[in-house]
Specification:
Pathway: Amino-sugar metabolism; N-acetylneuraminate degradation; D-fructose 6-phosphate from N-acetylneuraminate: step 5/5. The chain is of the alpha/beta class. The longest helix is centred in the first third of the chain and has 18 residues. The structure holds fructose -6-phosphate.
């Protein structure tokens, strides 16, 4: 695990964009794994800048989102599908038809999860996965005690994550869905390269556990310790509990 402590969240995002730029230049048909939430926004902005000034192109790339709320229509402003369109797809030159997400409105949720796994495999697997981390150490929506070998499936969101995410729903906890579809930890760690980005003191304990704690389902991100190519990019506040 490579851990980089940047001077700021913006610098961490720029370093992440450098890594993605290198990867997409080496393989224009890169398969990118996309996280939603606030952590990766700086990376997406930086990628958009580089696409717009001609330094890179994502025209041949494809992407797979990590997760989606259950029960929100794809055009609901807080559905991860809409969010990723706003913060990423519309700002870069990727073909929107090649940006995929789990179907949170599927009638047969189990079949939708299996199909999603098959689609990732059919695309050749994820080359570079961008990850955020929850205050409780979750990655995607794999909450504490999730199996470290889990695959894409339906999960119940914890109260803490719903509280954390209620800021996106105007502070209304009741408006935050109770379930989601999420790539499993076993799915995520199959990505060839993983970039985890975190900023702020609120993430400091999760980062300490991820980098220095024992591997445990109690802190799902600790599963990344077994992966051969993980870069953790932090601002000083997120790094403040590291030894
Ligand atoms: C979102 C996701 C979540 C977030 C995490 C941190 O697709 O997978 O694991 O990365 O909840 O969220 P932010 O970045 O908003 O602090």
């Amino acid at each position: 695990m490579d851990v980089g402590i940047a001077e700021s969240a913006a610098q961490a995002a720029s370093i992440a964009a450098d890594l993605i730029q290198r990867a997409v230049r080496a393989k224009p048909e890169l398969v990118l794994g996309l996280a939603t939430g606030s952590s990766p926004v700086g990376i997406y902005d930086e990628l958009a800048r580089r696409v717009n000034d001609g330094r890179i192109s994502l025209a041949a790339a494809s992407a797979f989102m990590l997760d989606e709320y259950v029960g929100l229509s794809p055009d609901h402003p807080q559905a991860y599908r809409s969010v990723i369109d706003d913060i990423f797809t519309r700002k870069v030159d990727i073909d929107p038809a090649r940006v995929h997400g789990p179907d949170g409105t599927a009638k047969d949720v189990e079949a939708a999860c299996i199909e999603y796994e098959q689609a990732i495999r059919a695309a050749g697997g994820t080359d570079v996965q961008i990850l955020g981390i929850g205050t409780d150490g979750h990655i995607a929506f794999n909450e504490p005690t999730s199996s470290l070998a889990s695959r894409t499936r339906i999960k119940t969101l914890t109260k803490q994550t719903r509280i954390d995410n209620s800021r996106f729903f105007g502070g209304d906890l009741d408006a935050v869905p109770s379930h989601c579809l999420t790539q499993g930890i076993g799915t995520i760690v199959e990505a060839r390269k993983i970039i985890l980005i975190a900023a702020g003191r609120g993430k400091a304990e999760a980062i300490r556990q991820t980098v220095e704690g024992p591997v445990s389902a109690r802190w799902p991100a600790t599963a990344l310790q077994h992966h051969p190519d993980v870069t953790v990019l932090l601002d000083p506040a997120a790094a403040c509990r590291l030894d």
